[in-house]
Please model this.
Amino acid sequence: MPSIIAELAHVLASPCLALSDLHQLHALILRRNLAASPHLLPAFNRTIRALSKPHPFAALRLYSLFLRSSLSPDNFTIPFLLNASAALSLLPLGSELHSRSLRTGLLPFLPVANALIDMYGKCGDLSVARKVFDEMRVRDIVSFNALLGAHARVGVDMAEARRLFDEMPQRNAITWNAMVVGYVNCGDLRSARAVFDEMPARNLVSWTVMLMGYTKSGLMEDASDLFDEMPERNLVAWTMMITGNSQSGRPEEALALFRDMEKAGVEPDAAAMVGVISASAQIGRVELANCVGTYVDQKGIERNERVLTALVDMHAKCGNVDQACRLFDDIPVPDAFSYTALIHGLASHGQALRALELFDRMRDEAIKPDPITFVGVLTACSHSGLVDEGLKFWRSMVHEYKIEPWPDHYACIVDMLGRAGRLEEAHDMVKSMATGSHAGALGSLLAACRTYGNVEIAESVAQELFVLEPENTGNYVLLSSIYASKEQWGDAARVRSMIKERRVKKLPGYSWVEDPHREQRSQTKSP
Model:
């Protein structure tokens, strides 16, 4: 009998068991009367335990076979089934296991109660997690940490978490890290840093969580200071710094960090490369984009959907739209982000009709566009003079997709109407903006007024721009030139004198200056 059980346990341990396999195993158990064997339950328990973390679904399929074999889970089985339920966010199954534990008298076992707190916390039911905790007669540090972890994941009621923390008879690294995670998740970085500084000993998780708080909040100076203090830096920490700088509009810093990471001997993965690709997209140089693309290929970086979408966005923004299209075709199932990246690239580089065709394909695939998608679509309509189509898309965005217009949407529509000479409609659109005046929309309309010589609207728009951008010389010069085009020399001179009176400064432009000693184009070098 033990040899049969051992063979059965070996088969059970496979994470790839099909439903037909389970039926055959069930028949074997019944045919050999294995359910009566004292060795069967331990075999199931060992297998469920082994599968619960790496293959939670397989563990739960075994549980169904377990029940059909007339076995009853014990205090060793339940915790690992709860772990599997938590991993898959299967709250109903977790609740059923809770009920079974109550019926069979297993709840007083500490591992069962602790696993229940953890399961409810991971499934977002903090109130029941707390109820289980409060009803425990005996608690250990795992019990406290499980409840603290529940608070930390959702980042709510951190005052209660702090009270729990203060009541704990003892604490370990997991306890301290849970408090830092909780404060980070609720956006209270000051309290997170206070706990971090108070920690008797910090591990890599402690440093990484605090760093994550700063980078996700865009506090890159604080993040840099903390990063410099880290006793050791893993790939996750480097990736957060690269991504944080990229998302905060600091592409040069992101690429400099990437070079430092390589010098430190840390190999990038797909997540790190997404940050690098994103930074390169912001810089917008074709040579750099090609270098990054080559690097991804040479390093064998996983070309998952996020990497491919980032590459599409980078090449599209750098004007290499043909390469962007080829990469888009490599994405097995493009999502809204993938479509949006290519639509923007096509719209911004003179291929508006292709952008609109892609948008039609996106809708045919039943992929819901988001506000950023519509910025690209409206830009395409503006650049191609498709005014009526643009207005139709605007109405679809507002009424069909229930998207609240952003200032950028208004700016696109105003630019589109202004280019077509429909200045009254453009002005009405500006006045209807729920978000208030927007310099981009007003600037587009003022430029259109110069093209079509509309002094009346130009004066109204310029006055708003003088308030929004008091130091932007361009607005004053533009209004002055409109007056001059109508030979209103006195008004033109008056506006020019306003520049001196208000000491208006010319706003500097942005320029990326390539340093040949810093940017190596060699195919064996990093971007």
User: Anything to note?
Assistant: The longest helix spans residues 141-154. Residues 405-509 form a domain with the Serine Threonine Protein Phosphatase 5, Tetratricopeptide repeat fold (CATH 1.25.40).
